[in-house]
Amino acid sequence: MNYPLYLGRRLALGGDGRKSSPGVKVATAAIALSVTVMTASIAIVLGFKREITDKVVGFTSHIVMTANPGPGEDNTVTLTPTLKGLLDSQPYIDGYSVQVSLPAILKTPNDFKGIFLRNLDDSTTRRFIGSCLIKGSMPNWSVDSTRFDVLVSRIAANQLSLSQGDKVDCFFINQDVKVRRLRVAGIYDSHFDAYDDLMVYGSRQLSDIFSGLKESQGSSILVSTNDFSKLDESTDRLRRTLEKALAEGLIYRSYYVENAHTNGANYFHWLSMLDMNVIVVLTLMMVVGCVTLISGMLTIILDKKRFIGLMKALGATTGKMRQVFVYLALRVAIAGMLAGNVLILGLLWIQDRYHVFRLDPTSYYIDFVPVEFDWTAIALLNIGVLAVAYLSLLLPSRIIARISPAETMRSE
Asked: For residues 284 and 149, what is the distance between their CA atoms, to the nearest angstrom?
C-alpha cells in the first residue's frame, strides 16, 4: 500500500473519510479566493490595455509621418513613388495611407465650434470610428459622392445641438473662405474627450475640396506595423531608413516620425500605473493564500499530533510523513485552483459578453469593465500558485520531525 498517499487522503478528509477538516476548508477557500482575484486582475488590466491601445491607435495609427518643412516649404506630405517603394520594402510595415486633417469651423444659427476635419477613407480608422458609433450609420460615399455626409462626436453634437440628419455649415479659412453645408450621418463617442472634442470625419473628396490637395497629398502618412509590441523598435528603424534615404537623395524632404506611444503618452502612462496596481494585488493575494495555507497545515498537524506519533511508532519515517503533507498541499492547492478558475472564468466570460459591470467613462475612458483572456498568463499564474503552495508547506512540514511518539503517547 502507498502509505503517503493513503495517509494524505485520510488527513485531507479529516481522518474519518467523509468530510474535510476546517483547516483544509479554510486553506482551499483561501487558494480559490487568491486565484480568483489574481486572474481577474490580470484579465481586467489586459482588457484595459487592449481597449486604450485600440482607441489611441484608432485616432493616431501605429506610426505617423509628418513633414519637417524647410525654408519656403509647407507641411504637406506627398506619397511619391519613391517614398511608396521605400515603405513597401520595409518588412515590419503592414500598410499605410495618406490622411488629411484640416482646421475648420462648424456653424449653426446659434453657435459655432472649431474642429479638425479628417478623411475617413482609411480602413483602420473607418473600422474604429464605426465601433464607436452610437447614432446613425457610417456614410457610404461610393453611393452618392455629392452628398457631404460627416460623422461628429457626441460632444460636438451636444454643443451645437445637432442630431442625426441635421445640416451644418462648415467653413475652411485659408487664403480665401470656402464653405459647404454638411449632413450629420452619424454620431460617435469614443470616450476620449480630448479627441472627440475636435475630430469630425468626412470623405477624402470633401477634404480635397477644402484643401485643394491631390490624392497623393495630405497632412500626414499613417503607417501600421505587424507587431505592436515592437512599435518603438519599428519606429526607430523607419526613422533611420528615412534619414538614410534623405542623405542619399532618394527623397527630397525630412519627416517627423512619431508613434502611438508618444502621441498617447498620457494614456500609456496611466496604463503603467495599472501595472503597478496588479503587482501589488498579486503580491498581497499570494501572501494571503500562503499564510492561510500554512496556518491551515499547522492546525492539521497539531490536530493529528497523536496520529503522527502513532504512525512513527509503527515505523513510518519522518520523510514519509512529510510526503503526506506535500500530497495534502497539492490536493488543497489544486482543489482551490479548480474552484477559483471555474468561478472567475465564468464571471469573466459573462462580463466580456454582456458588460454587466459598468464604469464611469470620464474617469476610465471606457464605459464597461474590459476583459482580455490571455491563456498563457492564466496558465503561468496557476503554475506559480501551485509552486508557491508546494514551497509554503515545506516549513510547517518540518515540525513533524519534532513530534516524538513517546511524548504523544504520554500526553494522551
From this structure: 53
Strands (E), 174-307: 177-188, 199-202, 217-218, 220-225, 255-259
3-class secondary-structure state, position 335 = helix
The predicted-structure confidence for 181-236, as pLDDT tens digits, reads as follows 999 999 999 999 989 999 999 988 888 888 888 888 999 999 999 999 999 999 99
Angle between the N-to-C axes of helices 375-392 and 22-60, in degrees from 0 to 180, rounded to the nearest 10: 150
- Number of CB atoms found within 10 A of residue 118's CB: 26
What does the buried/exposed string (b/e) look like for 316-337 if buried means 16 or more CB atoms within 10 Å of the residue's CB? beeeebbbbbebbbebbbbbbb
**In this structure, what C-alpha cell is assigned to residue 381?**
499564474
Q: Give tens-digit pLDDT for 66-116.
A: 998 877 678 899 999 999 999 999 999 999 999 999 999 999 998 999 999
CA dist 54 and 258 (Å) reads 17
Answer for the pair 24, 296: CB distance below 8 angstroms, yes or no: yes
Sequence-distant (≥ 6) Cβ neighbours of residue 362 within 8 angstroms: 191, 193
Reading the block at residue 325, the C-alpha cell is 503533507
- CA gap 105, 108 in Å, rounded: 10
Asked if 386 and 28 touch (Cβ cutoff 8 Å), the reply is no
**Given strand 63-67, what is the order of strands in its sheet?**
93-99, 220-225, 63-67, 255-259
Tell me which residue has cell 499564510.
291
Strand pairing of 112-119 and 167-173?
Answer: unpaired
Q: Name the 3-class secondary structure at 67.
A: strand
User: b/e string for 176-210 if b means 16 or more Cβ within 10 A?
Assistant: eeeebebebbbbbbbbbeebbebbbbbbbebbbeb
How far, in Å, CA of 10 to CA of 14, rounded?
6
DSSP state, residue 273 = H
